[in-house]
Records
---
Amino acid sequence: MGKVKIGLLQFFTLTVLFELGTALVVNLGMNAGRDAWMSILIGCLAGLVMFWGYVYLYRKHPDMPFTAYTRKLLGTTAGTPVAVMYIVLYMNLAGRDLRDGSTMLAMATMHNTPLFILSMLMILSSAYVLHKGLEVLTRTSLMFTIIVLLIGVFSLLLLILSGSIKLFRLLPVLENGIGPVMDSVVHQNYMFPFGEMICFTMLMPYLSDVKKGPWVIAAGMLISALLLSATMALNISVLGADIVERSPLPLMPTISKISISDFIQRVDIFVVMVLIIGVFFKVSVFFAAALIGISELFNLPYRRMVYPVTLMILFTSMLDARSFTEHLNEGGRLLYTVYPLFMIVIPVILIIVTAIRSYFSAPRPG
Amino acid sequence: MKMRRLCTFLLAVLQLLLPLVLTGCWDSVELNRRAIVSGVAIDRGEGEKEKYVVSFQVIVAEEISGKNTRGISPVVLYTGKGRTMFEALANASRQTARFLSLGHVRVLVISEKLAREGIKDMLDVLERESDTRLTSLIFVAKGQPASELMSTMTVFSKIPANDLVEKLETTSKQFGYNFRMEVDDVIRGIQLRGGGPVINGVFTDGSREKADSNDNFKTIVPHAILKVSELAAFKDDKLKGWIKGDAALGTVLLHNKIKEYPVVISHPQGGYIAFNVYQSQVRLTVAAKDPEHPVFTVKISQQVSIKENANELNLISPATVVDLSSHVIKDTTRKIKDAIDTARKYNSDYLGFGEAMERENPQGWKKVMKHWEDIFADCEYKIEADAVIRHTDMRSNSFQVNP
C-alpha cells in the first residue's frame, strides 16, 4: 500500500472512534454495578500500560508492522505461525464486532431485516473505504469524530434540560468495596475496549511522527476512556443501575428519556447513528490490521485481498453464534481467556526478546 | 479513453440508483399504513385466557388535520385480549386496518382491579419492546374500567390521551397533589425494597352515557369529565390504597416533585388565609449508625407568598408575617407527618426512606433490607421545616383594616 504517512490529528480521531466504537452504546463494565464508570477508568490505565509495551516494540521497529517484527524476533519458523494467528485474531475481532453491530441494529430498529443483509451493507462500506486506502479511513474518522461529539454534546444538553439526570442514583459509591470494580476490570474493561489497541501495532508504521505519535494515540485512549466513563455515569444517573445492567444498549433508553415540553423527543435515532459509526470504525480498523498483515506476510498486493477478507469477516460474523446471547456469552469468556494471550503474553515475550537483543547488540564503550 | 468515460458514467448512475435499495430495508411501513396509538388502557379480563384486555386509542389522522374531514370521532378505540400484553396487541389487529405503531403512546392507564392484582408482569413488554418508550405516563383508573378513560371525549384536545397529559401537567404545576410518573419511574419503584411506586389516579366524573361521542361537550357542562385524582400507593407491584388530601401532598413533597401548591390556614383571629408555596426544597437525610434504629431527618425550606387575606391582620408588621409563616411551617410539618403515617398504614416505603438509608449506610442496609417494613413502621423521624413569606403581593393590609 505504498508509503503513506498519516498525520497525528487523524490518528488521534481514529483512536477515539475505535475506542468509543461499540463500547459507547453497550452496558460496559456493569459487573461493577453503579461503579461501572470507575472500572472503565481503571481499565484504561491498565490499557495504557499495555499500550506502552506496544509502543516500546514500535519504537524499536518503527517501519515494521507487528507481523513483521514477530518474524524478525522469533525467527521465520516460529514467527510465521504467530503472525498468521494474529491475522486470524484481527479478522475474528472484526467479525465479532460486525455481529455486535448488526444485531444491535436489528434489536433497536430493524426487526425484520435479515441479519445477513445488515452485516453485508456494513462490511461492504468498510471494504469500500479500505479499498480506497488507509488514509481515506483516517480522514473519514476526522469527519465522524466531529459528528459523534456534536451528537454527544447535543444529547447531553437535551438531557440536562429535560431534567432526567439524577446524580444521586450513582450513590453509594463503592457499595461492596473495590472488589466488584476490580473484578469487572479483570474480566472485561482492560481488554474491551483498551486491550484491542493491539491492532494499532499494525497501523503505527504509518504514523508520520515516531516520537509524538504514540503520545497522541495514548491521549486519544485517555479521552475516549473519559467519554466512555462519563457516558456510563450518565446512563446510570438517568435510568438507575438496574435498568442499565439489564439493557444491552442502555444509551438508547437513556436518550429516549429526552423530552422537552413534548416537542423534542424520540431522538434515539442519534444512538443508532453513533452505533453505526462506531461499528464501522471498529470493524474497519481490525479489517485494515488484518489486510496489512496479509499483504506483508504473504507479499500480496493490499487491494487484491480486500474482497476475500470481506467475505471471511462476513461469514465469521454470521457463523459465530446462533443467538446474540450466545455471542455475548462467548465474547465475555474470550475477553479473559484467549485475548490476554494475544494482547499480553506474546507482546511481553517479544519485548523481552527485543530488550535482550538490543542489550547485546548495543555498542559498548571500551 | 472513451471506454473509461463510459465506465465512470455507468458507475455514477449505479451510485444514484443504490440509495433506492436502502430505504428502510425490510422494516419499512409506509405512513399511510400506520396508525398512531396515543393511549393504551389495560384491563383485567375474565380468567387466565383473557387476562389482559388491552384497548388502544388510535388517532384518526385525517380527522385531526386533514382537509376533507368526515366529521367522525378523532380517535377510535380498538380492544384486543390475550394472556400477555403482546398477544393482546396482536389480537387487536383483527379490527385495525393499519399497523398499530406504539412509538407515540403518551398515556398508559391500568385498571384498579389489575393494579390490585399486580402489575409487574405487564411492565416487561413496555421496557423490552423497542417501539414503546419510557416517557409514557402511567395512570391507574380509579374504580372503573381503564377503557372508559380512553373513550371519553375531551374538549381541549381532540386526542383524549393528550388532554390527560396536559391535565396532569397543569395540576402538578398548580395544585401539587400529583406529579409525572413515567414507565421507568414505576419500574424503579417496584424494585424499591419494602416499598413500591406511587402512580397517579384518574377517573371520569359525570354520566357515562354520552361520554364517548361529540355529544359529551355539546352542552356547556360536559357530561363526563376526565379528572386526575388521588395517588395510588403500591406495595411492590400491588395497589394497596389511595393517598388522599394532606397525605398526598406530603408524599409529593417527600418525592421533591412539587412546583407550586396552595396552603390554607384558618387564623385564630378568624377567617382563612391562603398562601401560595412557590418553591420548596426537600432533603431527606438519615443517621444510620445503628441500621436497626435509623433516625430520619426531613429538611424542607419553602418560599411562600400571601394570596388571600380576608382578615384584619396588620401585615405591615414583620412580626405578624413571621407568625403567619410559622402557621405554614406547621401545616407543612403536618402534611409530611400525614404522608409518613399513610405510608406506614399501607406498610409500604414508597417514600424512599430505604433508598436514603442505602446511600448512607450500604452495609447496614444489607442487614436490614429483608425486614425493612418493620423498621420503617417504627423508625424515628424529625421534620425540620422552614418557610419564609417573601412579600405580601400587591397590597399590604386588607381593605378590611380601614373600613
---
Amino acid sequence: MPETVIKAEGLTKIYKSAENDLTVLDNVSFEAIQGTSLAIIGPSGSGKTTLLGLCAGLDIPTAGIISLMGFKLNVMDEDDRAYIRNQYVGFVFQNFQLLPTLTALENVMVPLELRGERNVAPKAKDLLVRVGLGARFSHYPSQLSGGEQQRVAMARAFITSPRILFADEPTGNLDGESAAQITNLLFGMNREEKTTLILVTHNLELAKKTERILQMKDGKLVNEQIHSPA
Amino acid sequence: MIEYVIKLKREVRSIFKDRWVWMMAWRDGRHNFSRLFLFVASLITGIAAVVAIGSLNYAMQGELDKNAKELLGADLVINSNKPFDKGFIRKLDTAKRELAKDAEMASMVMFLNTKQSRLIKLTALEGEFPFYGKIVTQPANAYELMKKGNYALLDESLARQYEVSSDDTIKLGTRNFIVAGVVEKFPGGGALTATLAPAVYISMSALDSTGLVQFGSRISYSLFVKTTSEKQTENAINLIKPLVEDLGYSYDTVEGRKRDLGEGFQSVYRFFSLLAFVALILGCIGVASSVHIYAREKRDEVAVLRCVGSSGWQAFNIYFIQIFILGVVGSIIGAALGVGIQQLIPFVFGDYLPVEIQLGVSWRAFGEGIFIGALVSVLFSILPLVAVRFVPPLAVLRADFTSPKIVSKTKWMAITLIVLFPILAASYQTRSFISGGLFSLGLALALGSLALVAIGLLFLVRRFFPQNSSFIFRHALSNLFRPNNQTQVLLVTIGLGAFIISTLNIIQSSLLNQVEFRGNKNQSNTILFDIQSNQKDDVVSLIKKHNLPVNQVVPIVTCRLSGINGFTVEQLLESDSVKIRPWALTREYRVTYRDSLHISEELLEGEMHSYKKGSTDSVGVTISEGMQETLKVKVGDTLVFDIQGVPIKTFLSGIRKVEWPKDPPNFIFVFPKGVLENAPQIWVAATRIDNPPGAIQFQQELVFKFPNVSLIDLQLILSTVDELFTKVGLVVRFLALFSIVTGLVVLAGAVMNSKFARIKENVLLRTLGARTNQIMKITLIEYGYVGIFSAITGLVLSLGGGWLLTKFFFEVQFSINLIELSIISVGVVLLTVLIGWWNSREVISTPPLQVLRKEG
Ligand SMILES: Nc1ncnc2c1ncn2[C@@H]1O[C@H](COP(=O)(O)OP(=O)(O)OP(=O)(O)O)[C@@H](O)[C@H]1O
Ligand SMILES: [Mg+2]
C-alpha cells in the first residue's frame, strides 16, 4: 500500500499589504506518494517557491491544510515544524545555503548532531566521498566552487536519509557538467533510498526526468502530467 | 491526536544538556572572534574603569580604617581661636592624659639667602606631638632640633621652591631662625594643603619672640590629648563637652576626623565613580551595538539551521554561549587591567589623597568587576540576540524576507532589566539610591539629547541632501545611511566624548576668565593685610615710594551677629521654624565701613546709608547678595552685631551684588562711616604689582619694616588654582578620551562588520569604472562626515550644557575659547577619519575577483 507523504488540500497564500491583497497561491491541492518524484514548473512568479515553502513547513498557509508524514504542519508551532524537518525532510537550494563558518564535513554533520547523535563523522565522510569530495573535508564553503558547494549541500540533505527531499532550482546556479552531477545524485537517491523528490525548476529537461509534473500559473495548478521518467 | 504524539517525541534539551549547541558555538565562534572584538573591547574598557575606581576606593577605606589615629595624631583635639583658658587646661591635665599644643597663623617668611619672601602658614608646636604617627623630616633629627627654639622646619615643597636647605636662615616676624630641615610627612596633612598653604614649623616657645602675635592676627590654637584607652577618651570628651561650648571651643575626635576625611574622599570618589559609570555605560552601548550587528549578520546562517531542524532557542543558545564566554574572558581581562590602572593612580594623584595607598590587589573589586562584566554581557546582548530566535526559516528561500516584528516576553524582560541596570549600577557605585538615580537620569538626559541632536542632524542632511555636489561627496554622504552602519550610535558615542571635552573646556575658560586679572589693568593683584592702625600711614607711603598704586586702604573690624529681628542667635539656632544655616549665625564676620560702593559692587535694592554722627538714627548696613539669601533677611530687617563685646543695633538698608574676584578685598557687610572708627581694627591695603623684580624689592622692604604685615600675591594663588584645575581636568579629559575611544571602537566594529558589504559595493563601483583613489576618497570623506557630525553634535550640546553649568552652577559669566574648541573639534574629526581609514584598508584594496568567488 503506497504511503502518502505530502498531502496539500486547498492551500491558499495571500500576502496582505496596505494597498491590496496579493493571492500568490490559490486553492492548490495535490498529494505525493513515498518514493516518487515530482516536478513543479511554471513561469516566474507563479508561486512555485511559495508552494515548496508551505510543503516543507517553512511558512504557513493563509488557508488550507498541509500534512507531511501525517503531521498537520499548519497547526504546529515553528519549533515543532523544525523538529519534523529534521526528522523527515532534506533541502537543496539554488544558492546552496551552506554555513560559511563550518567546514564541508561539519556542514554535513549538522542535521544528525542536532538530533543529539554522536560519532557522525564517519557517516558524513562516507557521504562526502560519495558525492566526490573525499579530499575536501576540511575546506570552508568559500574555498569551494559552486558545484562543489552544492554537492556538500546534497550530502547534508542525504545524511538523515530523509523521506522527502525538497529542491528549489538546485542546478540554477551551475554550469552544464556540475548540473548533470547534481541531477544524477538527486535521482540516484530517489531510486536507491526511496526518497520522495519534490523539485522546483524552470528547466523542462530536468522536469521531464520526474514521474509527475505539476504546472503552475498565477498561483493555481493548471496542469498535471504523469509520465514515465525519461 | 497527531500533535499529541509529536509533543511527546520532541524533547526540549536545556542549554547545559544540549551538546550540539556548545559544539556549534565553538565551531562557529572560532572564526568569528575578530567580529566580536568590538564586543570584548567595549567590555574590557568599561570593566577596567569600574574596577580601577572600585579598588582604589577599597584601598582608601582600608587605609583610613587602619591609620585613623595617625590622621589626627592624637585621641582628641580641641580647637580655639584664642589662647586656651588656664583653668580648662588644668582640668584636662592629669596623669592619665598627655597634652600637646599647636598654634597656626598666616605670616610672611623671608629667606635671607635670597631675600625672597612669601606668605606661609606658621605652625608653632609644643609637647610630644604627634602621639600617633610621625613627623617625617629630612634629616631625621630635625624635629628634635626644632624643639630647642632657634630652629625652624619647612615643608618640602616650600624649601624646594625657594631653594632653602639646612642651616640657611629665615626670618619670621622680627626673629631669625636656622633651618633644621624639611618636613616630608605631617600627620593628617596632605600635599594638597602644602601646595595651597605651605607651612613653616617652629617651637611654641619661640612664637612670642617673633612679634607676630598682635592685635587682630588670626591664630588658631589646638590642644592635642592622648589618653590611655577608648574609655578614657570618652571620659575626656564628657569632661570638656560642657566647657567647650561656653568657651567657644570646638573639638575633633578620631572618629570625627575619619568621617570628615571619609566624606571628603567620598565626594571625590563619587565624582570618579561617575566617570567610571559613564565608561561602563559606554561599554554597554558598545556591547549592545556589537551584538546587534553580530546577530544581524548571523541571520542567514540561523535560517539555514532552522531549515535543518534547529529550534529557535537552540539557535539563540549557540550565540549566547559565545557571547557569554567571551564576556567572562573580557571581564577578567578588564578587571586585571583595572587593577593595573589602580596601581598607577597613587603615582599620578598620590599627592592629593589624604592617606598613602599601599600597592595591593583588591580582590573584592576584581570579583565585582567580573560579575558586572558577566552581567553586562548577558543583559546587553539578550535584546539583540533574541531576534535570532525569530528568524523565519523562509529566509533561506527569499534572502530579503523580513518577518513581522515579534514582541516576546523575553524581550520585555530584557528591556526592563536594561532600564534598571544603570540605576542599580550607579546606586551601587555611589552607595546611594538618590545619587544613583540622579546619575542615571543625567546620563540618560545627556545621551538622549545627543541622540536627538544626532537624529536631527541626520534628518537635516537627508532633507537637504546636496543633490548637486560631486559624485564622490554625494556617495560618501549616502553611505552614512547604509543599513547596519550604526551611524547614530557613532554620533552619540564620539559626540559624547567631544561633548565632555568641550564642556570642560568651556567651564575652564569661563572660570579662568572670571579670575583673570590681565584684562582689567587697574585691579589689585596684591593684598597687604594685618596692618595695625599705627602702621597704616607708613605702609601706604611705602607703597607709594615704590611707585605702586594704592587701590584700597580699608579698615576691618571683626564682629559676630548676636540677633536678627528681635531674636537672639541662640533662639534662632534652636528654632525649628527659621532654618538659617548655623555657621552663618555663629561665624566671625570681617566688616568694613564706607559710604560709597566699591567698583566691584552694584546696589540691587535699598541704599548705602550715611550715618550722621551723634544722631539717634539706627545704623544702616548693607549686605552682599549671597549672604542675604543665606541669612534670609530683607531690607528693613534689624540686625544686632557684637563688636568686640559692644552690641550695635543696625538695620539692613540695602543689598549689594558683589563680584568677589574683582578688585579684592570685598565684604559681606559694609557699615556706614561714623560708627566703627573707634572700634579695634586692622587695615588691609590693595595694590597692583606688575613687574616681578619690583615686587621682590617691595616685599623685602615690607617684611623688613613691618614683619607682622602679610602679603597675598593673588597671581600666585591663581596659578595654584589653575594648576589644580589642570590636574582635575586631566582626569576628566581622560574620561572624555575614553568615551571617544569607545566611539572609535564602535566605529572600528561597524567598519569591520560591514566590511563585506563595503567590499562588494566598492567592487561594483570599480566595475562601473571607479579608480582606487576615488574609492579611497569616498571612504575618507565618509568618515570625515561621521567625525564632523559627531563634533557638531558634541559641540552643540556642550555649548548648551556649558551655558547652563556656568550660569546656574558656577554662577560665572559664560565665556568660550573659540580656538581651543576648534582644535578639539578638528582633533575629533581627524581621529575618526584615521580610525575609519585604518579599518578600511582591506575594503579599499581588495581585488574584485575575490569578491565574486564569495558570492555563492
Ligand atoms: N513576502 C511577500 N510579500 C508579498 N508578495 C510576495 C512575498 N513573497 C512572495 N511574493 C510574491 O508571490 C509571488 C510568487 O512568488 P514565488 O517566489 O513563489 O514565485 P516563483 O514561482 O518561485 O518564481 P521564480 O520562478 O521567479 O522563483 C510573486 O509574485 C512574489 O512577488
Ligand atoms: Mg522561485
---
Amino acid sequence: MGELHLDLALGVRLLHVLAAVVAVGAPVALALVIRAGPEPRVVEALVARAERWQWVALAVLVATGVGNLGALGDAIPDAGSAWGRTLFAKLGFVLALLAVSAVRTFVIAGHSLSSVPTGRLAGWYGGTGALGAVIVVLAVVMAHG
Amino acid sequence: MAEVDPRRPDAVTHAATYAATHAATHGSAQEGPGRFAFALGTFHATALVVAAVLLAHARGGLDALDGLNTMVGLALFALLWAASVAGTHWALRDVHVHALDVALRRGVVGGGISGLIVLGVGLAVFAVLVPFGLVQTEGGLAGLGNVVVTVLFIVGVYGVIGAVVAAVVGGALGFVFALVDWAILGAAGLGNGFDPRDEVARGG
C-alpha cells in the first residue's frame, strides 16, 4: 500500500513537471516561431493546437499541484515561513498566469489572426512564457527547501 | 458583426462580439462558443481551485489535503472541470444579445448547472459504490435489499438538500466568474460597443 502510494505520488509529480514543460515551453517556442515570420496558415494551425494544449496543461498543472501539496501532508510549513511565503507567491503568479492566458486566448479568438500584428501575437506568448518561467523559479526555490 | 439589443443599442456584448468575429474569421458560429467554452470553463475550474488553495494556505488549512486520497482528488478535479466546461457551454449556447445583466444572469444559471452536475455525479458514484463496498465487506448478497433502500434514502434526502446548496453555491460562483469574464474580455479588447477588427486595423 505504501509503495503504491509512493508510486502514485511519483506519477503525480511527473505529470506536474510534464505539464509545466508544455505550459511554459509551448508559448516560448511559439513566440520564437512567430517572430521568424512563417506563413499565416502555419501560424493559424500552430496557434489553434497550442491554445487547446495550453489549457489542458494548465488544468493538469493545477490538479497535480494540489496533489503534490496533499502528498506533503503535515509536512507543509506554516504560511509565515519562507517556504510558506514562496508558496503564496507561486499561487499568486499561477492566478496571474491563468488570467493572462485567458486574456491572450480571447485576444486571439476574437480577432482574425492574419490581421493581428505578429509582434503583438509573439508578445502575448512571450509574456505567458515569462510568467510561467517565474513560477518555475519559485517551484525550484520551494523544492530546494 | 456583433448583435445589438434594440432596447439597448450601446450594449454590444463581449461574447456576442467574440462569437460574431470568430465566426466571421475562423469558421462557423457553432464552432466559436464551443472553443470559447472549453477555454473559459477550464479557466473557471483552475482559478477556483487555485484561489481555494490560496485561501486555505492563508488560514493554515492545507493540512486538510493530507486526508484526501490522491485518486479521489484527481477525480473530483476532473468532475469540477467537466461540470465547469458544461455550465459555461450552456451559458454561451447562442451568440445573441449578451448585455452585462444577461451575462450575469446566465453566469448564475450556468454556475448552478455546474453545481448540480457535480452533486449529481457525486451522488450517482456514491449510490453505486457504497452498496458494492458494503456487499463486499459483508461478504455476500444478504441484506442487499436493505442496503439499497438505505442508500436510496440517503441519496434522496441529500439529493434534495444538496441540490439547493449546490445550485446556490454554483450560482454565486457563476455570478463572480461572470464578472471576472467580463473584465477579462474587456481587457482582450472585446468590450461594449467595441469592434476588435477596428482596433487591429489601427494597429492596437
